[in-house]
TrEMBL record:
GO terms classed as biological process: regulation of ethylene-activated signaling pathway; response to ethylene
Alphabetical UniProt keywords: Membrane, Transmembrane, Transmembrane helix
Residue ranges crossing the lipid bilayer per the database entry: 186-205, 211-230
Organism classification: Eukaryota, Viridiplantae, Streptophyta, Embryophyta, Tracheophyta
Record-linked Pfam families: RTE1
Record carries keyword Cytoplasm: no
UniProt name for this protein: DUF778 domain-containing protein
GO cellular component: endoplasmic reticulum; Golgi apparatus
């Protein structure tokens, strides 16, 4: 079988998304983090899924979870389009505009092949929520795929992608599943705000807002201003 035929074979129709079985073919999935998301609900844990729907996530040093999403069931998901990936069998076979850069970074001939390469890379990485985390793993996968003809995936734009384009999980009962996902994501944050204002006063909101700005500033500074600070 030729390389082209093999690639076309791998792009066959995917199974349906099945939240009850935690199967999300070629999706990004997101769930809130204990404590951290209670203070900053825009921060959470993210994973990327294989073509069979199994979730992969970087959740500890030298360790990639397979089909066992850390911190609970996904609350949001976003299915990605494999047709927006570059699967070059050789240097001349690139469909993206980053041929040499893509080859140097590491290419793949299928979706799952890219994810396996990223798994091997992160099995030797030390986890750190501030410098090398689950978003770093997903960004590495997307860069190997050259998803959306881009080699610039990082923590910030991966987080923005799932935050602004991700859908709340629905399942057997759409309304119930939707509200459960939203409640898991925002209820603890609401409780923290209410308790903080009750016990400390409105000054608590200023401190919480400052904490969120510091977090956002760190990731923005490390990603776009200090070269290599958040690379892993």
């Amino acid at each position: 079988m030729s390389s082209t035929s093999r690639i076309q074979h791998e792009l066959c129709q995917l199974d349906e998304i099945d939240p009850k079985k935690a199967k999300f073919p070629c999706c990004l999935v997101w769930t809130p983090l204990p404590v951290v998301s209670w203070l900053a609900p825009f921060i959470g844990h993210i994973g990327i899924c294989q073509e069979d729907g199994a979730i992969l996530d970087f959740s500890g040093s030298n360790f990639i979870n397979v089909d066992d999403f850390a911190f609970g069931a996904p609350a949001r998901h976003l299915q990605l389009d494999r047709n927006q990936c570059c699967f070059p069998p050789n240097l001349a076979g690139h469909t993206c505009k980053h041929g040499y850069q893509h080859t140097e970074f590491g290419t793949a001939i299928t979706w799952d092949d890219a994810l396996r390469s990223s798994i091997r890379h992160f099995q030797h990485k030390t986890y750190n929520i501030f410098t090398c985390n689950c978003h770093s793993f997903v960004a590495n996968c997307l860069n190997r795929l050259c998803y959306g003809a881009s080699m610039d995936w990082n923590m910030i734009n991966v987080a923005a992608l799932i935050l602004f384009k991700g859908r709340w999980i629905d399942g057997m009962s759409v309304i119930r599943s939707f509200f459960m996902s939203v409640i898991r994501s925002f209820f603890p944050f609401t409780v923290v705000i209410c308790l903080g204002v009750f016990l400390v006063g409105w000054q608590f909101l200023i401190e919480l807002f400052s904490f969120s700005l510091l977090l956002m500033g760190w990731f923005l500074l490390g990603t776009y201003c200090v070269n290599g600070l958040l690379e892993c």
